[in-house]
C-alpha cells in the first residue's frame, strides 16, 4: 500500500519546544515499525540532529495513526543551528524506507529580544 507524504510548514523560534503531529487515519498501521526523524539544513548538509522512535518520535496507532515529533529547546538553541530554512523528515528504517512518511518545512527564526 502506497502512503502519501504528510507535510507541514511552519516557523519555529530558536529554542522553542513544540510537538508536531501528523495524523494519517487512512494510512497503514506503523505499530512496531522503527522510525527516524532527521533535521537537515535545506542546502543538503548532514542532519543537524536526529530522533528515533521512543527518543523524540512517538507513534500511536488506532483511529488517527499519529506520528509525533518532539522538537525541544536544546535541539535548536545552539549556535551550530543558525536561523534559516530547514527540512525535517520522518522515515521508516526498515525495508520500506525509500521515501519519507512525513515532511516539515521549518523556518527557524531568532526570537525578538526584549529591551530593558
Descriptive report:
By secondary structure, the protein is mainly beta. It has a single domain (6-109), classed as Immunoglobulins (Immunoglobulin-like). It has 1 helix and 8 strands, in the order ββββββαββ. The protein has one helix at 73-76; strands at residues 6-13, 18-23, 35-41, 47-53, 56-60, 66-71, 84-92, 102-109. The N and C termini lie far apart (57 Å).
Contiguous runs where pLDDT drops below 50 for at least 5 residues? none
Rg is 15 Å
Shape: elongated
Mean of all residue-level pLDDT scores: 85
Summarize this structure as a short list of keywords or feature phrases.
116 residues; mainly beta; Immunoglobulin-like; eight-stranded mixed β-sheet; 1 helix; 3% helix
Give the helices and strands, then pairings.
Elements: E1 6-13, E2 18-23, E3 35-41, E4 47-53, E5 56-60, E6 66-71, H1 73-76, E7 84-92, E8 102-109
Parallel strand pairs: 1-8, 4-5
Antiparallel strand pairs: 2-6, 3-4, 3-7, 5-6, 7-8
In brief, what are we looking at here?
This protein has 116 residues and is mainly beta. The chain is built from one helix and eight strands; from the N terminus they run ββββββαββ.
